[in-house]
Amino acid sequence: MTLIDELFDIEHEAYRKSPVHSLDSRVKLILCLLGLLVTVLLPYVRIGDQIIPWPLVFAFAVIYMLFAGLYLLSGASVRYYIVRLVLIMPFGLFFILLQPFFANPYYDVYHVIFSLPFGVNIYWESLIFGLSLFAKFVISLSFIILLSATTTMQSMLEAASRLHVPRLFITVMSLTVRYIFVFALIFQKIQSAFACKCFRWSDHRLPLGYRLNVIGNAAGSLFLRAMDQGERTYVSMCCRGYAANSAMHFPRKPLVIAEWIFLLFGAGYIVFFPVLVYLVF
Q1: What does the pLDDT read at residue 264?
Q2: Using CA of residue 28, residue 4, residue 250, residue 168, what is the dihedral sign?
Q3: pLDDT at 188 over 80
Q4: Within the chain, how many helices (H) and strands (E) appear?
Q5: To which H or E segment does residue 46 belong?
Q6: Does residue 46 come out as left (phi exceeding 0), alpha (psi in the -120 to 50 range) or beta?
Q7: Whether the predicted pLDDT of 50 surpasses 70
Q8: pLDDT for 33 beyond 70
Q9: What was the pLDDT predicted at 48?
């Protein structure tokens, strides 16, 4: 499955019916952002010059339990979560795997737990730092996947607007959301044209130079069509009164009592229980 197909699949998943899907987008956006913030800001616990990892581990587990509960309540596919987590993981995994082999500048004292040939050492403090980065990376991605799996792109824009995000950002993102699917459809048409002509970029029976030439021509054609589409869209917007101070209008929508309760409970859980873990230790 191509990334373009994944794009349509992500939006399709957000149209499911569940208690989490039906929540106001502002509640989900605030909880996900708060989950990311608390996860990133969780501190280390030191006793003397020794780092104790267990409070951090339990705090991560507490936050991840909230994500797991919301994800199961949403009824979203577990395969959907795993596939997207695996697809995004390589972007940060290489950097994380290198951490234990370098003396981390955040610590004054280092303890070597393994000595490898050629003077390569694995440091306890750097290992804890790398594992914590991995946990933070997974939890942050999990909350982002939860948000994308339960909230449509248009609903996210409405939530951002009602949370008073700058209108220029809303306008730019709304155009991006609308025309990313136009781009996807054009790309699928190019793929269909290749399939009708029995062309595959991975077909080793064709010369490499020929394949690169065809793919380059297709990329150039896609770029030119995107520029042409953008110019026609801008002209159409100007004809309808678009200007630099234009803004999208979303009507006011107050939260109901159940949504307020859910927001306060979720926010309290994300903040209170990790703090309680640290107080216990």
Answers
A1: 92
A2: positive
A3: no
A4: 10, 4
A5: strand 45-47
A6: beta
A7: no
A8: yes
A9: 60
Q: What's the CA gap between 258 and 248, in Å, rounded?
A: 28
Residue 121 has phi, psi (to 5 degrees) of -120, 150
Burial of 274 (0-12, 13-18, 19+ CB in 10 A): buried
Please give the model's pTM, rounded to 2 decimal places. Answer: 0.76
Structure tokens at 272: 């209170």
Contact in structure between 247 and 171 (CB atoms under 8 Å): yes
Angstrom CA distances, 145 to 35, 67, 82, 249, stand at: 12, 10, 10, 27
- Report the SS3 class of residue 8: helix
Structure tokens at 94: 């290489």
Residue type, 153: M
Residues 177/179/185/187 CA torsion (nearest 10 deg): -100
| Termini Cα distance of the chain | 47
Q: Are 39 and 140 in contact, with CB atoms under 8 Å apart?
A: yes
pLDDT grade, residue 4 (50/70/90)?
Answer: low
In the numeric block, the tokens 């009824």 are attached to 75
